[in-house]
Design goal:
This protein has about 250 residues and is α/β, with parallel strands linked by helices. The chain has one domain. Helix content is about 45%, strand content about 15%. The chain has ten helices and nine strands. Strands 1-2-5-4-3 form a five-stranded mixed beta sheet. The relative contact order is 0.13.
């Protein structure tokens, strides 16, 4: 089957093909941000999307891999052999594009339980979880920052989903995990600083800055679990995040 050169069209094709086999896939990463946020094409926020990223609610890689193979993708057999219970990689040779599929959970700098709400959106993770996949990055780069700004510029914070960043979900996840809360708090500092250097007008800059502060305040005031409080006592004396494996194309 012909792989589509446009990333958004191809992401939808993959998700639909998986659904036909009763496999649920949802997009994440920068392309998922672009599917939700018109501001991803803003002059100050636009960036290329060289790869496709998905998460599946199924830990069974043997159900996911045939979907991508039949759609024309070449599996990274050595990586998939050793990591096939939690992550799969595929290559689109014609478009020099890699496809990354997380199985059963999202695990990078932090583990995020994203799969329990995959039915919330038809194409992507819900906005709250999508935002967290960016804010959980300890070493954020410019593209990650731009993705966060695009999401926060186009979407208000609230108590529900539906093109809204669900504060209740963010409070729940960060209130149960001190390490995640700590990284998110540091990431919000980085985004707030970066906003001043982006090509945004005064209203756009103020909108993002206000939402950053609203989110920070909400997470600070949210109830914290006993586990959160115990880990907070240890603080930064012990590393609170994982260093994700860097996977290079073959």
């Amino acid at each position: 089957m012909t792989i589509l050169p446009d990333g958004q069209d191809e992401a939808r094709r993959i998700i639909e093909a998986a659904s036909q086999r009763d496999v649920i896939l949802r997009a994440l990463g920068g392309l998922a941000v672009a599917l939700h946020s018109p501001s991803a094409t803003h002059r100050g926020l636009a960036r290329p999307y060289p790869d496709l990223d998905f998460v599946s609610g199924d830990h069974r890689g043997y159900r996911v891999e045939p979907v991508l193979v039949d759609l024309g993708y070449e599996p990274n057999r050595s990586f998939n052999l050793y990591n096939g219970d939690r992550r799969l990689l595929f290559l689109d040779i014609g478009n020099a594009r890699q496809v990354d599929v997380f199985l059963g959970m999202f695990r990078m700098c932090h583990v995020l339980p994203v799969t329990e709400r995959l039915a919330t959106e038809p194409w992507t993770l819900p906005l709250a979880e999508l935002l967290l996949t960016k804010l959980q990055i300890v070493e954020m780069n410019e593209k990650d920052t731009r993705d966060v700004v695009a999401l926060m510029l186009d979407h208000p914070l609230g108590g529900q989903d539906e093109e809204t960043i669900n504060l209740l979900r963010l409070q729940e996840l960060c209130g149960n995990d001190w390490g995640l809360w700590k990284t998110v708090d540091l990431s919000l500092d980085k985004v707030a600083e970066a906003v001043t250097g982006l090509d945004l007008d005064a209203v756009e800059r103020r909108t993002v800055s206000d939402r950053i502060e609203e989110l920070r305040r909400s997470l600070e005031e949210a109830p914290k679990s006993i586990a959160w409080r115990l880990r907070a006592r240890v603080g930064e004396r012990v590393r609170w995040y994982e260093v994700p494996e860097e996977v290079r194309r073959r």
